[in-house]
Amino acid sequence: MTRLLRSTSLLLVLSIGVVLAGCSDNDDEGDDTPTPVPPTQAATAPAGQPTTAATTGTGATTVPATFASGSGQIVSDGICQATVPDDWVDNGTGSGTTPSGARYAIFGNLIPSEDGWNQAVKLVKDDAAKKEDAKVTEGDNFVRVDLADDKGFEYRGRFDDRYCDFSVTSSRAIPPEERAFWDAIIATLGPVPA
């Protein structure tokens, strides 16, 4: 019964978001400039880190997904943890699969110094340079790589004495409804509580 209530609540929240995204007081029908959709509180990445909205092949923007209270499941590698949607399969090893068959992984490691963090960022950027048309976004405490053709992303964030990675990858384009959860997952990423 609780799962049904959570599912119904999540559908209600998503439905309201879709309806609100479709409302506009701008009658510029010839204007092709997309209207930005502000992220919700739960989908907002930590300070200084970007949030993105998933786009479809037509360029339409989907509303970033959020986790309703009590929804989602925590996945962990023992060092870091994040919340993923309930319908994502957790293999119990910090990895699993999404409904579309994409693979996800969470990974954390200790960093002893500022130099350790710089090396951890360099590794991600060097790996991204080997991937065609990968887009790198970087801030003081994070680096994010978005793969071409909506085939996934990798996010590495710094948390005091460690970094935490979360990635989703696929050999084909990942559906917009799964990509819409990426920022919400990043917002939950962090160390396993002591």
Low confidence ranges? 1-62
Share of helical residues: 10-25%
Q: What's the CATH first level?
A: Alpha Beta
Shape: globular
Look up the CATH topology. Protein Transport Mog1p, Chain A
What is the average of the pLDDT values?
Answer: 77
- Based on the structure given, which CATH architecture is correct? 3-Layer(aba) Sandwich
Count of DSSP-assigned helices: 4
**Rg calculated over all Cα atoms:** 17 Å
What is the β-strand count? 10
Distance between the termini: 32 Å
Secondary-structure element string:
HEEEEEHEEEEHHE
Secondary-structure-derived class: alpha+beta
Strand order across the largest sheet = 3-4-5-9-8-7-6
- Please give the domain count: 1
Strand content: 25-35%
- Biggest beta-sheet profile: 7 strands, antiparallel
Q: What does this 3D model show about the protein?
A:
By secondary structure, the protein is an alpha+beta fold. It starts with a helix and ends with a strand. It has helices at about 1-20, 115-130, 175-180, 180-190, and strands at about 75, 80-85, 90, 95, 105-110, 135-140, 140-145, 150-160, 160-170, 190. Residues about 1-60 have low confidence and may be disordered. The radius of gyration is 17 Å and the shape is globular. The protein has a single domain (about 1-25, about 40-190), classed as 3-Layer(aba) Sandwich (Protein Transport Mog1p, Chain A), CATH 3.40.1000. A hairpin with a 3-residue loop joins β1 and β2. The chain has a seven-stranded antiparallel β-sheet, covered by helices on one side. Strands 1-2-10 form a three-stranded antiparallel β-sheet.
